[in-house]
């Protein structure tokens, strides 16, 4: 999770305080401008988490902030930490990132394979289409040449 000022007054943004909590645990409390949530939140598949975000104008701030406004954007990033189904990539080689993570004990990351096991059928059908196109091209060319066009 991160936050950045999107528009408005830097002066006003820099004075705001924020408190972010989840399930009764305070994840951050301090100036909004210094927000940094470095510990990732791990969720199981289908699990949800609700964050309570409170942004306050400090009571100690003076009148110089009147009529100022700012807009902040909170961004949430998600990553799939599921190990790939196999240690081979789509081209049949060794997935070195997966092997390196397995050796270091880090969580394995990767996307599931969603295409064909082998691209042979796609390549062959492409070649067949090109040959069919070439045959039609030369057939039409010879037919128009016979008619004198």
TrEMBL record:
Keywords: Cell wall, Membrane, Peptidoglycan-anchor, Secreted, Signal, Transmembrane, Transmembrane helix. Pfam families: Gram_pos_anchor. It is a peptidoglycan-anchor. It is found in: Secreted, Cell wall. The chain crosses the membrane at residues 120-139. The keyword Signal applies. Residues 111-141 form the Gram-positive cocci surface proteins LPxTG domain. The keyword Secreted applies. Residues 87-116 are annotated as: Disordered. This is LPXTG cell wall anchor domain-containing protein. It comes from Metabacillus flavus.
């Amino acid at each position: 999770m991160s936050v950045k000022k999107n528009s408005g007054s830097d002066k006003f943004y820099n004075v705001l305080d924020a408190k972010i909590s989840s399930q009764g645990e305070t994840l951050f409390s301090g100036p909004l401008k210094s927000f940094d949530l470095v510990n990732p939140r791990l969720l199981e598949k289908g699990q949800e988490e609700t964050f309570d975000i409170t942004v306050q104008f400090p009571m100690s701030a003076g009148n110089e902030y009147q009529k100022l406004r700012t807009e902040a954007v909170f961004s949430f990033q998600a990553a799939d930490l599921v190990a790939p189904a196999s240690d081979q990539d789509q081209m049949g080689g060794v997935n070195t990132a997966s092997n390196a993570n397995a050796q270091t004990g880090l969580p394995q990351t990767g996307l599931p394979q969603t295409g064909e096991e082998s691209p042979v059928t796609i390549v062959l059908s492409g070649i067949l289409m090109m040959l069919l196109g070439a045959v039609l091209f030369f057939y039409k060319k010879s037919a128009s040449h016979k008619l004198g066009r």
